[in-house]
Amino acid sequence: MLFRPLLIAISAFIFLVPLGLLAPGTAWGEWDRVKLASLGLGYIPQGFDRWNNLWRAPIPGYNVLAFHNPFIAYILSALLGVALIIGIVMVASILWHRLLKKI
Questions:
Q1: Which of 43, 78, 90, 95 has the highest CB neighbour count under 10 A?
Q2: Distances (CA, A) of 10 to 7, 14, 23, 75
């Protein structure tokens, strides 16, 4: 079956996530106005400031005080993200199948 290799691949990706901590600089898209200017971006649209605070990370800075370890927090963040995606796909699949039964 396809499920077992998929589960193994997802598990491997989850445990490879902390490799991002070894990379220099910041993660893609985690920039504020000051960081964008320091990267050499000459023009920053006005809407950037308006939408910049729309979303806050559930685990800001990958800092879980109970662990004091960013690697564990990175893995927990990956697990949380995967669980949310799987949950959303499962709910969407159930709703889709119910919709198809009515048609």
A1: 78
A2: 5, 6, 21, 12
- Expressed in angstroms, the distance from the first to the final Cα of the chain is 30
Structure tokens at 70: 């960013």
CA-CA-CA-CA torsion sign (23, 28, 33, 39): positive
